[in-house]
Specification:
The structure holds 2 protein chains of 2 kinds. Chain A has a single domain, classed as Transcription Regulator spoIIAA (2-Layer Sandwich), CATH 3.30.750.24. In chain A, 45% of the residues lie in helices and 23% in strands. Chain A contains 4 helices and 5 strands. By secondary structure, chain B is α+β, with helices and mostly antiparallel strands. In chain B, 31% of the residues lie in helices and 31% in strands. Chain B contains 4 helices and 5 strands, in the order βααββααββ. In chain B, α1 packs antiparallel against α2 and α2 packs antiparallel against α4. Chain B starts with a strand and ends in a 7-residue tail after the last strand. The chains are: A alpha/beta, B alpha+beta. Chains A and B meet through α1, α2 and α3 of A and α1, α2 and α4 of B.
């Protein structure tokens, strides 16, 4: 995982398979960055993620809920088609901005 | 007719979820199968195996068994059975409700069964409290039968 903070925007670039094992570790690390920077916008880049199951939905919803408390915006960018299909089964696709760049 | 099968028995630890889903995907990758179909099956297996470990055994020691079958009919059919001897599911209707999770504090999305139902053609849940759970996932491979 890589992260970058610039002028209120915190971007993280995930590059592992998102399953229960990796998500349990990632959520602590990501929340550490969110609390440290308290960004206006939090951007999750999924372009390097080759696999995701429902644990990834849980990870993203959890961060979305935390950011809402901070009045921050969350954006998901570049999900692959298969990841998009997983995301679209949940309400997350309606609540969080998703785009490809 | 059953053309091929394999069976994996493994310790109930989350470390094994990735190797098992990769093994199953590799096993069926010789079929005339699309990438989407392969990812669907891999994702459904990941959900069922994670459930066995996190819920069936509550992360305690146990054995999870996964059997995969390739069945010949008009189409190739992939059948995967995921079994644990854990605590079982008390209320299957509740457990399969989208977004319901028994462990919200762990940020489970409660979408595991929804994914299995959406990505596979059929899911059978056979569970007895304190004896275990058997999940049978079936998917027809839509392309014409592969010939080997």
């Amino acid at each position: 995982m890589k992260y970058e903070y610039d002028k209120g925007n915190l971007s993280i670039n995930l590059d592992e398979e998102l399953d229960m094992k990796t998500c349990k570790k990632l959520r602590t690390v990501i929340d550490g960055y969110i609390m440290r920077y308290q960004p206006q916008e939090f951007i999750v880049d999924l372009s390097q993620v080759k696999f995701m199951d429902s644990s990834g939905i849980g990870l993203l919803i959890g961060r979305y809920n935390l950011l809402k408390l901070l009045n921050s915006k969350m954006t998901i960018i570049n999900p692959s088609n298969s990841i998009r299909r997983v995301l679209e089964l949940s309400n997350i696709a309606k609540n969080i901005d998703m785009r490809s760049i | 007719m059953e053309r091929n099968y394999m069976k994996l028995d493994f310790k109930s630890t989350l470390d094994n979820v990735a190797p098992v889903r990769v093994a199953i995907a590799t096993f069926i990758s010789n079929l005339n199968i699309t990438v989407d179909e392969l990812v669907d099956i891999k994702t459904a297996v990941s959900e069922a195996v994670t459930n066995a470990i996190e819920h069936g055994y509550n992360n305690k020691d146990g054995i999870v068994s996964v059997s995969a079958y390739i069945i010949e009919s008009d189409y190739d059919i992939v059948k995967i059975i995921i079994e644990d001897k854990g605590i079982g599911i008390d209320d299957i209707e509740l457990a399969t409700t989208p977004s319901y999770t028994s462990k919200p504090e762990l940020e489970h999305a409660g979408m595991g069964f929804t994914i299995m139902e959406s990505f596979m053609d059929e899911i059978l849940i056979d569970s007895v409290t304190n004896e275990g759970t058997k999940i049978t996932l079936t998917k027809k491979v839509k392309n014409k039968k592969s010939s080997n």
